[in-house]
Description:
The chain contains 8 helices and 16 strands. By secondary structure, the protein is an alpha/beta fold. Helix 3 (122-133) links the parallel strand 7 and strand 8. The radius of gyration is 20 Å and the shape is globular.
Amino acid sequence: MTRFFLFHGVAVNDLSEMKVFSGNSNRPLAQAIAEYCGLPLGDATVSSFPDGETMVKINENIRGRDVYIVQSTCPPTNQHIMELLILIDAARRASATRITAVIPFFGYARQDRKDQPRVPITAKLIANLLTTAGADRVLTMDLHAQQIQGFFDVPVDHLYAAPVLYKHLKEMNLPDLVVVSPDVGGMKMAYSYAQMLRAELAIVAKRRVSGEEVEALYVVGEVEGKNVLLVDDMTETAGTLTAAARILKKQGAKRILAGVSHTILNEKAVERLQKSDIDELITTNSVPPREVPNFKLTALNVAGLLGEGILRVHNAESVSSLFEINNAEKL
């Protein structure tokens, strides 16, 4: 007879049918997700041979189990993608009933179209590799381009970090708030945050000088004397954010915050943030957070959001209901 448990208001099938495993990209997050689900993190060895080849061994029985493999494809990106693919293949060959790739941060998402001649659509290639390896479904968060869901021939559950950021921002209780998109492409995301926070909306028009250099041209909207929240799905060099903050400050903005789902900071980004007009960068732990000396960076925990998503997938519950604004208090 099937047993049920109650976790966070959701009836959950027998947890013995579930297994959560992790690669090496973000084991602390995977551990927290497993704890949220009421499970120990699965026992798997993920290491490398002397020549650099990835070696995987699952050290427990998963025959007939519902398996979730947590792995962000953050730097070193290619290494972490290979770990994920090999873990999926190992689980398939060990007779798991269903394999879900839980990818808090989906790399290669910016290569989602042919924007010049003779270039690949690498996001589609990664989708093909995941399904060929044996993934039955994908659970991910804040894709750089939502159409990437259509690259998969298996179900995709697309989560949003917005409820977690909303809860934190609501606790900050910022008056006279304006949500700003640092470029045209982020307008939909900025509009969603403005609706949630009941704030005004503005946009910064920019011109990209190179892959690492961005020039902010002008601001559409009123920011003088206002607190500003810059929102974006990811930042790597922090060029777009810092350029936007610079022109917003010139336009009279008071306090400038940045809310970013995925923060993958290189050395150039650290240097830029330290010299920037941004007072605080609020992000998530979808990738391991990096400390920035003499700069305030707050990493919010999305283990509850991802764990709740896993429980609902396992129990065939609605995932979209996670993003009703009333549920933000629960996450």
